[in-house]
Amino acid sequence: MIRRLLASFARLATGVRLLPATPHGAGPAIYFANHASHMDFVVVWAALPDEVRELTSPAAAEDYWGATSLRRRIACDLFQAILIPRQAVTRHNHPVDRLGEALEAGRSVIIFPEGTRNAGGETAEFKSGLYHLAKRYPEIPLVPVQLENLSRILPKGSRLLVPLIAQARFGEPIRLPGGESKPDFLARARACLLEAGSPA
To answer: Which secondary-structure segment (H or E) carries 183?
Structure first.
């Protein structure tokens, strides 16, 4: 009930619409979005139908969301997030392994392939994590999500929301076919995300 109320508040605060159904059908998915604000994972999560949201875990930067006990409780207890290290990554705490555990348990995940927030408005080149997830779980659909206006609603360094309308545009699912190279796949995935944000 608390998560449902949080999702309703997030939609009310940003204007993002609730999806009537998942864009990929039944089962888990890997949602990948551009990243400009700490609100990003909340907005993607809030846009999903209630029953899908309950089985979806956003990736959240461990150095930020794990920095205090309050942030950790918000991320892990309320949003069921997966804390992802951005520094000192080893084979014992690799982000792909942490995300993979959720996927293997039947949960969807929300990730940000740019790796860090990009407040400049342009979607940066993707890092390799999306490719490695797609290669390890080729049966799981990858759903691009183009977020608009989030960097203006919660500017970097600000704690106050600016009243603007945001958008979360979900594109058609993609997969990694056999033989496609990592650079080609990452470029194609980025192009699909940008296309998801283009007017029909």
So the answer is: helix 182-196
How many domains, in total, are found in the chain? Answer: 1
What one-character DSSP code corresponds to residue 16?
Answer: P
Contact (Cβ atoms closer than 8 angstroms) between residue 192 and residue 144 = yes
Amino acid residing at 160: L
Higher pLDDT, residue 128 or 120: 128
Alpha helices for 37-181 (secondary structure H): 40-47, 50-53, 62-65, 69-72, 95-104, 129-136, 150-153
Q: What is the CATH number of the domain that holds 32?
A: 3.40.1130.10
By residue range, what is the domain housing residue 20?
A: 2-196
Compute the average pLDDT of residues 143-148: 92
pTM over 0.70? The answer is yes
CB-based contact 36:154 (threshold 8 Å): no
Q: Would you say 162 and 152 are in contact if contact means Cβ atoms under 8 Å apart? A: yes
pLDDT tens by residue, 157-169: 555 454 456 788 9
Q: Give the C-alpha separation, 22 to 29, whole Å.
A: 10
Q: What is the pLDDT of residue 160?
A: 45
